[in-house]
Specification:
This protein is of the alpha+beta class. It has helices at about 1-50, 70-75, 80-85, 135-170, 175-180, 185-190, 190-215, 220-235, 240-255, 260-290; strands at about 55-60, 65-70, 100-105, 110-120, 125-135. The protein folds into 2 domains: about 1-135, Beta-Lactamase; about 140-290, no CATH class. It is built from 10 helices and 5 strands, in the order αββααβββααααααα. α7 (about 190-215) packs across α10.
């Protein structure tokens, strides 16, 4: 009887253990089903987020084949999902790093794009999740900032050059120049003529800019030659040419705020002042050689 009683107790204990195990398994199965539901919910939510993301999202498998594209990516490439899925992605992928690529959008538009990628498991397959962000406007802004800095440096240089020209124009003439042309400058001896020459020089600067911008042709060289003859009639020297150039450039740049246009005036002005100097030298050389008779100024 004792052995039978112990056997019953053992059976009851084993039955209790078995029931407890069954309860644990049932609980584990419920937890597994709950976990599976959570995974499905997370996967669904992730796909919704990817679908709605303003950045282009593309999933590419390890073979480089496109497995998924969201609407933003389709818009970026200007291609439909069915055209892209199954096709080669076409760009080198480096997981965990950001790179910049140029995407051909449509037939001829180039879109500057920042690409980031991470490794994921997509529908049971190893793949890359790639995000594509249009940075065209950012690149334009960076370029504009760089150009603005360059223009700022040029304006500073132009101001230094202008200051040097002013100092040069104020320097007294000595030696041969003083003996030939006198120490009195054109602005001091003939202020009205000087003002007219400054106005004419300024007009030529405008024509030079117009010629450069619109590819039209103006006889700037011929008019500079006529201006040199007028200067020669008044026995003007290099100092007077610099004075005219400086006054005209100051007047032009004073009226505008755009650094780019100031840069253009400065560049064209340097070309013109050198050409005017050359014409004036030719005038005096021809006069010395007796090949040019001059009796009155040209206007």
């Amino acid at each position: 009887m004792k052995d039978e009683s112990m056997t019953q107790e053992q059976l009851i204990a084993e039955l209790t253990v078995a029931r407890r195990r069954i309860a644990e398994l049932e609980k584990s199965e419920i937890e597994c089903r709950q976990m599976e539901k959570k995974i499905i919910d997370i996967d669904t939510q992730s796909k919704i987020i990817i679908e709605k993301n303003i950045d282009g999202i593309i999933v590419v498998n390890k073979k480089g084949l496109t497995r998924f594209v969201n609407p933003a990516a389709q818009l970026l490439f200007e291609r439909k999902a069915e055209e892209m899925i199954g096709a080669l992605f076409g760009f080198p992928i480096v997981a965990g790093e950001a790179t910049e690529i140029d995407i051909l959008s449509g037939e001829d538009a180039i879109v500057a794009t920042e690409m980031r990628s991470v490794e994921i498991l997509w529908e049971g397959e190893d793949a890359y999740l790639i995000s594509l962000r249009d940075i065209t406007e950012r690149k334009k802004a960076e370029q504009a900032i760089a150009e603005a800095k360059a223009n700022e440096e040029h304006v500073k240089q132009m101001e230094l050059e202008l200051s040097s020209l002013i100092k040069l124009s104020r320097a007294s003439q000595t030696g041969v120049t003083a003996r030939m042309y006198g120490v009195v400058t054109l602005i001091e001896s003939f202020p009205d003529t000087f003002s007219n020459l400054v106005a004419g020089y300024g007009e030529l600067m405008d024509l030079a800019l117009e010629q450069q911008a619109y590819k039209v042709k103006h006889d700037i060289s011929g008019r500079l030659g006529a201006m040199a003859e007028t200067l020669g009639f008044y026995k003007a020297g290099p100092r007077d040419v610099v004075d005219i150039h400086t006054a005209a450039l100051k007047e032009k740049t004073r009226k505008i705020a755009a650094a780019e246009k100031k840069k253009a005036y400065s560049g064209e002005g340097w070309i013109m002042v050198l050409e005017l100097m050359g014409h004036l030298v030719s005038f005096y050389r021809n006069r010395t050689q007796g090949t040019s008779a001059h009796t009155s100024p040209k206007t």
